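cron nightly-structures :: item 1 of 1
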Amino acid sequence: MWQVNETLSFDGKPYRILLTETSYFYWIALDENKGLPEKIYFDECNHWVDEGRVERIPDPYAYLQGESWAKESSVYQQSQSNYELIKPIVEGEEAFDKRIRARRLNHAIASSDKGKSTIYRLVRRYWQRGQIKNALLHKTPYYYMPLFDLLEQKDTSIGSECDKRKLSSENKFFSTSNKKYDESVEEIIKASVNARIFGISVIELFVDEQGEFAFSFVPKEFYNFDEEKGLYLKSGKTKIFPKEPNFYIIKHTPVLLKTLWIAYAKHFVLSHYLKFAEFLGVPPLIVNASSSDAETIASISAATKNLKSSSYAVFGQNDLVKVLEGKGNQSDFMEFVRYCDSEIAKTVNGASLGSNVSKSGSYAQSKSHEENRTEIVNSDIKYATRIATKLFKKIDIDIKLNIAVEKDKALLDRANTLQILKDLGYSMTPEQIAYEFDLPAPTKKEQKEANKKLSINSKLAKDNIDFILEDDAFEDELQQSENEILTTLQKLLNECKSFEEVHEKISLNYKDINFKKLEEMIFKAVALSQIRGDIEND
């Protein structure tokens, strides 16, 4: 069922599976500084799965699998040395036996200059980050937070794309079963999306002015990192190491980690472009001296410097000077910058529509990019929903969230589909309609009023004339008039010998039929119908 190195969440806490056997496996908590492997039986874990306490999660250290360093670098050399030190400790199933592991550890201490805490930290890092050599290369991606923050602030493209992604999710309409928790849910959504972008977020649990539990996203400018203890919050001279139940940490593989190489390439090219622009804007000054005498050269150099403080040269009279022109131009530099911005946009938001999109097929490209962006936003929302539900469960509050994803464009189509289903005999409760159309669930009072209106409307759905015709008093009058008409017709039929004669006598004796009374009854019916409709509409 479970695979080695698979990452799971148990009650919201991330774990990695280290070894599996027939009836049990070992795992280790990913975010514990002093965590050690634990033995878990499959039957017990399956029970947790049924209860919804265990689920698969993305590996926050998946990026390490593709990391590479030059063999000559000090970082690589150090990682290799550390791996050789811990290799005898972590090999085989015996590594999970406390007694055997202790003996191996003591041997490693005796054969090296490392202390117990250092070796244990390396062993723990190896287990927590995927049991590969690259696990020992460098620190976690969360230590890149200062760099991510710098890029967001200084790189206009990265900053803009980060804002788009955050706002796409944070501005989504949502409702909860209890509206007093809406603000807390909004804070959790903000923290969750920030964690997906930057790798880590901190949420604080506190009691508000009304005495209710509430959650608040801690801005990343308060984040700092300690080599041994990890993340801490710094306010002035105060250091706070966030721990439950006052704080909750959300970790995720940072999206911006994938943008580092392209951001570096972009700014490298931009730095050379600035030099290129400077060279073209202020070309160098070349002077040919009449003599190669040192004093003459020095004198001419001093005079030239006064004219131009940089980019000048003095050559002898017979020296040949050539300026080589490259094939590159300004558009080449800017085209590469646009390419980098496009790649950043695709990485962060799945969309990159700009000046680099060709005229042909631009609509198809825009549609594809929009679909990619929608998938990312929906994924952020679903992730944030899971986080919010888990955090509220920790304080024994069961909330139902209704967060809008990308349904708005198909609103009319969904409404038409609902009408078709209703005609086929299907019906929806007010709660179901609220969920389908991203509306707040109606209160009991609102629902009662709605049911009353539905009852009235079901009567008004009939033609108002038909409604009046079903009235008992009107039916009596109609029956009386019908009897009078039938009596008159019977009299004519008895007196006449043919249909032609009947027709002639009806024409001559039209007044004998009480059509006036019938007209009055019809007029009354129409008037009463109109009055009833006006009353019900009010």
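cron nightly-structures :: done
DSSP finds 18 helices and 15 strands in the chain.
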